Amino acid sequence: MTALIVCHFLLAAFTRPLVQRLGTRAFLVLALPPAATTCWALTQWDTVASGSSVTWSWNWIPAYDVSLGLRLDALAELMVLLAAGVGTLVLLYCASYFTDDTPQLAGFAGNLLAFTGAMLALVLADDLISLYVFWELTTVFSYLLIGHNSEHRHSRRSALQALTVTTFGGLAMLVGFLIIGQAAGTYRISAILADPPRTGIALSVAVVLILCGALSKSAIWPFSLWLPNAMAAPTPVSAYLHAAAMVKAGVYLVARLAPGFADVPAWRPVVMVLGTATMLLGGWRALRLNDLKLVLAYGTVSQLGFLTLLAGVGNRDAALAAAVMILAHALFKAPLFLVTGIVDHAAGTRDLRRLSGVGRALPHVCAVAVLAAASMAALPPLLGFAAKEAAFDALLHGDTADRWALGITVAGSMLTFAYTVRFVWGAFLRKPGISDTPVHRVGWAFLTPPALLAACGLVLGPGVGWTEGLLSAYADTFPVPAHPYHLALWHGFGTALLLSAVATVGGAVLFARRVAVSRLSRRIAWPTADSVFGHLLLGLERLSLQITGFVQRGSLSVYLATTLLVMLAGQLTVLGVDRPWNGAVAPRLWDVPLQGAVAALTCAAALLCLTVSRRMKAVVLAGLTGYGTALLFVVQGAPDLALTQFCVETVSMIVFVLVLRRMPVHFQESVSSWRRAVRIPVALLAAATLSVVVWVSAAARTAKPAGALMVEEAAHHGLKDVVATILVDLRAWDTMGESAVLAAAAIGVTSLIYLHRRAEGAAAPPERQGHTAWSVTTGRLTGLPQGDEGAPERSWLAAGATLAPEHRSVVFEVVARLLFHPILVLSVYLLFCAENMPGGGFVGGLVAGVALITRYLAGGRFELAEAAPLQPGLFTGLGLFLSTGVALLGLTEGTVLHAWTHNGHLPLVGDYHFGTPVVFDFGVYLLVLGVVLDIVRALGAKVDRQIERAAAAEQAAGTRPGPSAPPEAGGAPG
To answer: pLDDT per residue over 328-360, tens digit each?
Structure first.
């Protein structure tokens, strides 16, 4: 099972080269995994039909009893055959439906195959958490498939609508899963159904939440709005996702959980009321639509309501009827969607008002459509008739609520017959006053997939008894009545047959009066759910704009004051109620007097920030507070923290300087006296409150500190630097998460800064062929050698020639050239010495970033491009890849981030020690280096471009450019 599922995802990852090489024939290759899954499932038929199951399990999160469990039983066997079998035929159909030059064909093919794998994993999952994971994977892939034609606004909106509705339902379902898992003491589905938790309010709430997820997935009212709009997807997607796969996931979940939870008080009312309502509303709407796909879409909504009703009734015969109806629905609805695609492909339209005489031009296509439509209309001897008979009989012999549902079901069946006949009439028959629609011929490969599915519906009608063993194995999980129902095409004359005849006659009357019915339907039509959804989104957007306008005033001081006041209100309330300082050890001012001296100087620098009016001085003073904090770490005996703080503060100050080049020299915000009178008490009160909170938090410790144990653990492995060991081994999960957050933040910030492409190294040489703004001098420089008087100038930097002489500093260039490589060597040393001395990947990456910053400050953006010709994203991505790879490698030993070590001896080198934490730390090194490089290119090179353009514009206007940057910018070109 596992190998088959993995094959879907692996082959989906290679669809691009396959499509580029084979074109649409790649779909033939992509059909192999679902075809193999179908063959494997058929070999397991007898096993699961006997009541046994095929299982596989892997402990995912043992501490929380979460495992990745797969289980093939009778219901899963049915769903696997549908998902894999129909998926195979749909992929074969795609080979004829698309052309080699179809845009984004590789992405579509990969998403469709990956969706098939996710759907198979969903129906095989025997664990609630893993089921939810694959549930959301189907949501994501369906979003990508529905929005395949992303250049069309309707496709994007439909995809987003489907994602929104099903995702919110999935989140509600997850909460229900967690409640049930905690109540049952396990998340294993088979174990929960074998021994359901005791009925109570919590269980009822959980059941309702789970049904929200199931009903939203299966487009049950009021969540049915997304399915008709999803017809914006290509026809193969509609045939697969909306007939045999995605929309069946909700019905499957209801059928899966019904044996254990159908007796919960909230279950039957929700399922039966919403199921019957959906059947009527969907069928009624289908009678007045003119797009063939929309007729089938609303018909699908109606049929899904019927399936949900049968699956959720909660007795053995209804479950048997639900199982055979699930099979029949896939075998008639999928070919109808595929035939609709053929008609659209051949005639160029799906509007039944414009189609006429297509049946005469495409008789084989018409025959396949009539065969599938007859099954949907429940006409003998098709499988749809046998399934409808089983459903009527199950509801007829149920309780009072079942009989009420039976009456509504008969009315819904009338609507089903009516819109089915209307579909066949509109697509294939001649219409008075309309000339025959010109069509082109259809190849046999195009028609074979829907023909095979329709033929299965014809064969399984008389042969429905062949499925009795498999489907009864699922139905028998409910209490078996004294006289259980048995599947057969003919049960003799009885009430069920009479009701089928009534539904057929009523549907024929509705079709005969289709004009009046359509007029009446439009006259009494309610606002569509799609319109309501659009108005809700519009109202939510307007509300958010109003709230944003009220809260976001554009003042950082207001934001900070609001944050501090909210924090103060919460903290002071807790402190006032709990009084945690009672019995706490009195705080010490310092351990050694040097701490007090450093702290006093740091506070003095912070207070001086309030008195300066120049931005650059404020940055320097703020940096001094950071360096003061680093000195406190040194005095306290934490060299790792001190080194990191020094590096972070240095890079931060440089980033500030790069930004300040484009900002006014002085602060322009005027602070009134009353605002200052408010800010000072708030700041002092916040500082005092935080000091008290830190004190009581440290004094409240009752457990023995873990530091000694960590020191012992590090020493046990021959390591001396405990901090580095914690970061890359003991708490590597935290480090990996923080690395991902750092990368995401850097990418987000630089993306906001860039409006155009980044200044890459590849773009530098063409620009250096001419003059840049930095090499332009409008006036003749005095005191410089002219002509042959000057000796050839030595270039200390690779891109030094791009700078005008007045912007160059020879001393700085020489220093940068001499220090660049030693700083890089120092960064590598800090990386590899971290096991025994202060250092690590984070510090090493920052130091390497400082080396590149030095080159940039000395030579400008072209020098940075020469020093680091590779893209920053390469370093960031490679760093994340290494860290994640080391984490996943640990799974071979049963746990993520399991560490390996190797000790050896090399000639001339001696004994050495190497472990996977070093590789993990190297990933952090590359990631930090990429982040620093990305920020410098964004805040440095981008600003340089803006300054150059401004200078060039001034020169072109015939004026002498003024200074482009304040003197505080240092040696950088700016």
So the answer is: 999 999 899 999 988 888 888 888 888 888 888
